[in-house]
Design brief:
The structure is a single chain. The chain is built from 13 helices and 15 strands. Helix 3 crosses helix 4 and helix 7 (149-160) packs parallel to helix 9 (213-226). It folds into two domains: 7-265, 3-Layer(aba) Sandwich (Carbamate kinase), CATH 3.40.1160; 273-364, Roll (Archaeosine Trna-guanine Transglycosylase, Chain: A, domain 4). It is globular, with a radius of gyration of 22 Å. The protein has 367 residues and is α/β, with parallel strands linked by helices. The protein binds glutamic acid (GLU). Glutamic acid is lined by residues 14, 51-55, 76, 134-135, 137, 148-149, 210-212.
Length: 367
Amino acid sequence: MIKKFKKIVIKIGSNSIVDPKLKKIKTKWLERLCRDVAQIHKTSKIVVVCSGAIALGSKSISKSALRKLEDKQAAASIGQIELAYQWRTKLKKHRIKVSQILLTLEDSETRRRFLNARNTISSLHNRSIIPIINENDTVATEEIKYGDNDKLAARVAQMIGADLLILLSDVDGLYNNNPKKVRDAKKISEVFKINRKIENLAKSQTSELGSGGMTTKIVAAKICSDNGCTTVITNSNKKNPISSIKRDNSTFFYPSTSTNSSKKKWLLNHLNPIGSFIVDGGAKNAILKNKSLLPAGIIDIQGNFKKGDVIAILIKSGTKIALGISAYDYNDAKKIIGKNSSEISKILGFEGQDEVVHKDNLVKFSA
Ligand code: GLU
């Protein structure tokens, strides 16, 4: 059933590819997976998002668990080269070429870089090369980090217009109860809408392994769903982890039907807003009616943002109601908030846009 999908992102967690005790590649498993990938590669374009750099490199740094950020980064730089080598040699046996792409959060959250990375992947795909992607852990610090490859994989899926994201995991999928605690917990085969109930189920099933667990998998599935892409969570520990995927042994999350433009879809799932605008009741109502955000409706602003940055729009209680691209930097925005748009040019000394966030650059969250 996987063959019907034409662009597939396969995300592999550290515990699937690296033996957690020996800190070594699970060679047999990777060879099996590569056989499977080679089959799918005949009919679909593939991107692999693969974790494991830190786990692999850590054995060269210390015997005990790494705590300091710089030690994890050092481990990543050692492990990444090994990871890339493994992919290269294992897929070479199937005459498939690979490339390595290391992304930072900015690469998907700044629209220009997002589009650039998309072009690179498209150029590789046109040559039948499989990109192997990981987070650039050696430069990513806590504040500017995806932190888990589930979200990274979802943003990559969105970037390339994938129709399927496969999250290979240590569980079969999402259950209607915590399978480790409730004996007759049943696996859910299909999710048509990711709502609060699904998010809460995921919270109760976040495993100790990996950095994300079920919660980040649901965040990833939501990003994909908003972008017309199906997500499947499935157990990596099977003979043919990809081609054996079916509803019986996995959980499928289907795309929602959204009419948003691709720019708005990108905005909707932005992972790292640089600042916030706190708005009054009038502005809130205008935003909910898909209108622009004017300076008059903004009560306060926060964050050292520049023109073009993505900003969270909140009401006074702190609830986030929308995301938007600011037409002004912090200093200029600070001067015009609460003011009428007709006063902008007088206050700033240049002819600025009437709206702080134009409606084309704004997405509201559904209630
Ligand atoms: N990028 C990290 C690594 O390669 C893994 C992040 C994750 O566990 O999702 O070690």
